[in-house]
Specification:
seven-stranded mixed sheet; 4 helices; alpha+beta; single chain
Length: 161
C-alpha cells in the first residue's frame, strides 16, 4: 500500500467512499444528502492543507484530509479525517492514513492534532485513535443522530506533540 497526494483523477474513486459512509449515517457527521460537488469542496483541502489517498496499485483503498483545525489563535493545532473503502477495512488502511497525517502535522510544526467529532459508537475509529496516542478530552452527549442507536455522543479527541 502506498499513500500519495490526491489528484483530481482520484475523485471518481473517492466520491463513492464518501457517499457510502455519509449515506449510512453511522460514523460521519456530514449531511446524508451531500452531493459530489459539495463533498469535493469539503474533502479536498487547499494548501497548506493536504488530501491523500491510500492505493494498492491502481485501486484506491482509502483517503484522508488534514489541515489546520481552526484559524488565528488556534492555528497551531491540526486536524484530520479518514475514510476507508468498505471492502478494505480491517487491513490497516486507516492506521496507515492516521500515521501519515500525524507525520505530516509534526513536520509542519503543529503543537498537536484534534478530532472534533468522533462518533462515540464508532469503536473501530476510537480504538485506532487511542492506539495512535489520542485521548478523549470530552464527549458531547447526544450530539449525533445514529440511524439505529438514536442519539449518541461525539468525542473530541486530542494528541499533543
Amino acid at each position: 500500500m502506498l499513500i500519495r497526494d490526491f489528484d483530481d483523477q482520484d475523485w471518481s474513486h473517492v466520491w463513492p467512499m464518501i457517499e457510502d459512509v455519509v449515506r449510512a449515517q453511522e460514523t460521519f457527521p456530514y449531511d446524508p444528502d451531500m452531493t459530489a460537488d459539495t463533498a469535493y469542496r469539503v474533502w479536498v483541502e487547499a494548501p497548506p492543507g493536504r488530501t491523500v489517498v491510500a492505493v494498492d496499485g491502481e485501486r484506491v483503498l482509502g483517503t484522508a484530509k488534514m489541515g489546520t483545525n481552526r484559524p488565528g489563535p488556534g492555528a497551531h493545532v491540526s486536524t484530520a479525517s479518514f475514510l476507508v473503502a468498505a471492502d478494505a477495512r480491517g487491513r490497516g488502511v486507516g492506521t496507515a492514513l492516521c500515521r501519515d497525517a500525524l507525520t505530516w502535522a509534526r513536520r509542519r510544526g503543529y503543537a498537536g492534532m484534534q478530532f472534533n467529532a468522533v462518533v462515540q459508537t464508532n469503536r473501530v475509529a476510537v480504538e485506532l485513535y487511542r492506539r495512535e496516542g489520542f485521548d478523549v478530552v470530552g464527549t458531547v452527549s447526544g450530539a449525533f443522530c445514529h440511524p439505529t442507536l438514536g442519539r449518541v455522543g461525539l468525542h473530541v479527541m486530542y494528541q499533543e506533540f
